[in-house]
């Protein structure tokens, strides 16, 4: 019999960019000085109010508060507890200081190195990495956070404050070694307890505290720190919901279940046996089941989920809470705005707002019975059947072609030493060759031309002529700067993944499917709904045109198979390995055509390579095997005198360096500035055999580097990489910067390379 008691429903977090990326535009207007702090705060308030309204309208019991940030929630936590580097000077918990941590420019206009950025676990969200320093007191500065809680509770008394847990905060920080960071746990827990007491004074009863590190392979000392840390967090009238996500607790189930908290949230999309977790939980605790995949855009199979939940509901009753698996931060806001998508696809989508409705339906189905949601169950099944019947969903010939890829170990036609000699004979590059990562500023003129073409205000010929004009200007600018290896600037590309998806079968594209990547930076991942096939060349004409304008080599620019996979919303009925192999096969054809067209250097970017790693090391080998194989399958068709480049950013390389070496790219460029070249240590310790281009200035901040700063970094690189295998380049692509920033930065970079080149000669 169904239970009549309503179930508690909640979310762990929600997209904070607002409708039509309202937060992005407000932030950038404020940073330019075009708008006031009051206007920025008003935009933030409106977005937060809309989030609460969405939850209340959907009948969600406990909406989140405190997950909203104007830049990054991890940096907010650092400010909340006074854990900011001394190089910034004294930092109260203010909005301008939050921006200084991310952008490196203080409120007084002084430039300093910003915090490093890193991928949040295995997502494409970039968090700011807190830097801990010795003798740094923990000082609670909670006014800004408490104001958010007051604001939310004025609209919904059940709003649930969200905090990043103390141990996860320490784990994700840097600056001190592991033991020194862990030694901060006791003092940090005391500060958390003070904050929780202040929340109790506001009438808060439940607080969500995120400890995603419990899904990782933690050292014993860190596991042992959980119980004493959480004993210190006990505050009268406050109940704690400990949340984990993105993975299974595995061997940490017993530990998590017995902690002195009042509830445990688990990611049911990564947990096979929910009853086994319930068995471990004391009778007084609630179990929050993250039953909806918080990173999947696909409409859930509600009938299957109800089958999973029913025995758990029978066992736990009102001790069962329902939620998405993780914060909905990783999803676009609203599928209802995608009216231009074909109906067969749109009816199968579930973005953040739709997840709220699905959550409500699941709760209703459990408490009132399946008949109460029979219409919705039938609609879901019919929508999926229509999608599965679409032409292009399954391509038998393509599947037969790509099924053999796992049976081979593709390789370039010659080892690196022979390829390097052939490439040097072809290009005759100097020592310390200079280049960029690929993109140049996407100017207002470029964006306007793209918009006009999209709106059919200009025709294809006019658009192509404008893009060629932009490419010619970029080539002239690079020659004037003195770069050795050029790029065409990617004027014609809206995004490094979407651009390729638009030319491949099996992809679809949204208008408003934006997801926050970092700060004000948003991405719009394409949707892979069918089998992926290349029906025509994608980049050859643009590359051939750019190369015709100069005698210097111009790199052909491609996004790699792993990155296209992980920076798309991927179909849920086929393994990621199989989809990646289809993309690799498409890129293999493109590389063959580029080489045949005379393009002698081809960059195949893989910034998402590490992002795909499973959280548990025991699962790494399988992923790394197929990810490396897909890349090698794509590039192995290139002749020996064609130089293959790849680019990676925001990655730690020491624990996967063998797999990076196995990619066998002739040149790898990496982001290293925010780590002050420390990421190079992995390559030096491993004795990485191929060429490396460590980024020598940070393109994610507005500062223009000086020659002295660049030279210091290059000399650090020379201490780790043989000069004959060292390239000089920025950290990443330049599309988000202005020409006023790009030109002097590249001129300084080239001047340093030329000066050091003369010294070395």
UniProtKB/TrEMBL annotation:
Record domain Cobalamin-independent methionine synthase MetE N-terminal: where: 9-315
Record bears the keyword Protein biosynthesis: no
Cofactor requirements of the protein: Zn(2+)
Ligand binding (L-homocysteine): 437-439, 490, 605
Gene Ontology MF terms in the entry: 5-methyltetrahydropteroyltriglutamate-homocysteine S-methyltransferase activity; zinc ion binding
InterPro entries, alphabetized: Cbl-indep_Met_Synth_N (IPR013215), Cobalamin-indep_Met_synthase (IPR006276), Met_Synth_C/arc (IPR002629), UROD/MetE-like_sf (IPR038071)
EC number: 2.1.1.14
Keywords for this protein: Amino-acid biosynthesis, Coiled coil, Metal-binding, Methionine biosynthesis, Methyltransferase, Repeat, Transferase, Zinc
UniProt binding sites for 5-methyltetrahydropteroyltri-L-glutamate: 24, 119, 124, 521-522, 567, 611
Reactions listed under catalytic activity: 5-methyltetrahydropteroyltri-L-glutamate + L-homocysteine = tetrahydropteroyltri-L-glutamate + L-methionine
Biological pathway: Amino-acid biosynthesis; L-methionine biosynthesis via de novo pathway; L-methionine from L-homocysteine (MetE route): step 1/1
Cofactor stoichiometry and binding remark: Binds 2 Zn(2+) ions per subunit. Binds 1 zinc ion per subunit.
The organism's place on the tree of life at top rank: Bacteria
Binding site for L-methionine: 437-439, 490, 605
One Pfam family from the record: Meth_synt_2
Family matches, as Gene3D superfamilies: 3.20.20.210
Stretches assigned to coiled coil: 446-480
GO-annotated biological processes: methionine biosynthetic process; methylation
NCBIfam families per the UniProt record, alphabetical: met_syn_B12ind, PRK05222.1
Classification via PANTHER family: 5-METHYLTETRAHYDROPTEROYLTRIGLUTAMATE--HOMOCYSTEINE METHYLTRANSFERASE
Function: Catalyzes the transfer of a methyl group from 5-methyltetrahydrofolate to homocysteine resulting in methionine formation.
Name of the protein in its database record: 5-methyltetrahydropteroyltriglutamate--homocysteine methyltransferase
């Amino acid at each position: 019999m169904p239970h009549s008691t309503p179930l508690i429903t909640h979310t762990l977090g929600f997209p904070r960019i607002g409708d039509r990326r309202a937060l992005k535009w407000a932030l950038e207007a404020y940073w330019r000085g075009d708008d006031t702090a009051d206007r920025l705060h008003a935009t933030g308030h409106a977005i937060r109010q809309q989030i609460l309204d969405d939850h209340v309208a959907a009948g969600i019991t406990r909406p989140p508060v405190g997950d909203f940030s104007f830049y990054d929630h991890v940096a907010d936590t650092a400010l909340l507890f006074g854990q900011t580097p001394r190089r910034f000077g004294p930092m109260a918990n203010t909005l301008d200081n939050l921006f200084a941590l991310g952008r490196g420019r203080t409120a007084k206009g002084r430039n300093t190195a910003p915090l490093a950025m890193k991928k949040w676990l295995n997502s494409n969200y970039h968090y700011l990495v807190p830097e801990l320093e010795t003798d740094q007191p923990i000082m609670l500065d909670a006014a800004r956070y408490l104001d958010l809680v007051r604001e939310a509770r004025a609209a919904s008394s059940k709003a649930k404050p969200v905090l990043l847990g103390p141990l996860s905060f320490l784990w994700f920080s840097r600056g001190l070694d592991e033991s020194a960071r862990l030694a901060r746990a006791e003092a940090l827990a005391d500060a958390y307890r003070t904050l929780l007491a202040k929340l109790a004074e506001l009438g808060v009863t439940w607080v969500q505290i995120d400890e995603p590190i419990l899904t990782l392979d933690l050292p014993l000392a860190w596991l042992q720190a959980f119980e004493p840390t959480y004993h210190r967090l006990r505050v009268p009238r406050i109940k704690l919901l400990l949340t984990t996500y993105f993975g299974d607790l595995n061997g940490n189930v017993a530990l998590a279940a017995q902690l002195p908290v009042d509830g445990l949230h688990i990611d049911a999309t990564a947990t096979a046996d929910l009853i086994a977790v319930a068995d471990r939980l004391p009778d007084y605790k609630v179990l929050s089941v993250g039953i909806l995949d918080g990173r999947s855009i696909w409409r859930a199979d509600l009938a299957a989920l109800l089958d999973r939940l029913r025995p758990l509901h029978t066992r736990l009753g009102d001790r069962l809470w329902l939620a998405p698996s993780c914060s909905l931060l990783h999803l676009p806001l609203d599928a209802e705005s995608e009216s231009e998508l074909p109906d067969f696809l749109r009816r199968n989508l579930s973005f953040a707002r739709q997840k709220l409705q699905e959550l409500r339906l699941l709760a209703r189905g459990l408490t009132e019975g399946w008949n109460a949601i029979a219409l919705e169950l039938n609609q879901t099944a019919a929508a999926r059947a229509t999608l599965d019947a679409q032409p292009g969903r399954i391509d038998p010939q393509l599947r037969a072609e790509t099924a053999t890829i796992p049976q081979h170990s593709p390789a370039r036609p010659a080892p690196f030493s022979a390829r390097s000699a052939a490439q040097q004979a072809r290009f005759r590059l100097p020592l310390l060759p200079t280049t960029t990562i690929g993109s140049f500023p996407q100017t207002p003129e470029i964006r306007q031309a793209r918009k006009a073409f999209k709106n059919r205000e200009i025709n294809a010929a006019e658009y192509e002529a404008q893009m060629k004009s932009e490419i010619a200007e970029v080539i002239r600018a690079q020659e004037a700067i003195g770069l050795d290896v050029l790029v065409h600037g990617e004027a014609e590309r809206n995004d490094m993944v979407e651009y390729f998806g638009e030319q491949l079968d099996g992809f679809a594209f949204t208008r408003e499917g934006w997801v926050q990547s970092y700060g004000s930076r948003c991405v719009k991942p394409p949707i892979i709904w069918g089998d992926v096939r290349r029906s025509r060349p994608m980049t050859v004409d643009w590359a051939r045109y750019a190369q015709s304008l100069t005698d210097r080599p111009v790199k052909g620019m491609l996004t790699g198979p792993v990155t296209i996979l992980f920076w798309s919303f991927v179909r849920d009925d086929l393994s990621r390995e199989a989809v990646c192999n289809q993309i690799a096969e498409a890129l293999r054809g493109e590389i063959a055509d580029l080489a045949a067209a005379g393009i002698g250097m081809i960059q195949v970017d893989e910034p998402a390579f590490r992002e795909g790693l499973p959280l548990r090391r025991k699962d790494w080998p399988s992923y790394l095997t197929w990810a490396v194989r897909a890349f090698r399958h794509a590039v192995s068709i290139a002749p020996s005198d064609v130089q293959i480049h790849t680019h990676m950013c925001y990655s730690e390389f020491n624990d996967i360096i063998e797999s990076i070496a196995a990619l066998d790219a002739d040149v790898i460029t990496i982001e290293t500035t925010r780590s002050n070249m420390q990421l190079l240590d992995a390559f030096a310790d491993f004795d990485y055999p191929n060429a490396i281009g460590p980024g020598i200035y940070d393109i994610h901040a507005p500062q223009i580097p000086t020659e002295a700063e660049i030279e210091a970094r290059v000399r650090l690189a020379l201490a780790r990489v043989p000069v004959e295998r060292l390239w000089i380049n920025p950290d990443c692509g330049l599309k988000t910067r202005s020409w006023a920033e790009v030109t002097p930065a590249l001129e300084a970079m080239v001047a340093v390379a030329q000066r050091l080149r003369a010294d070395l000669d």
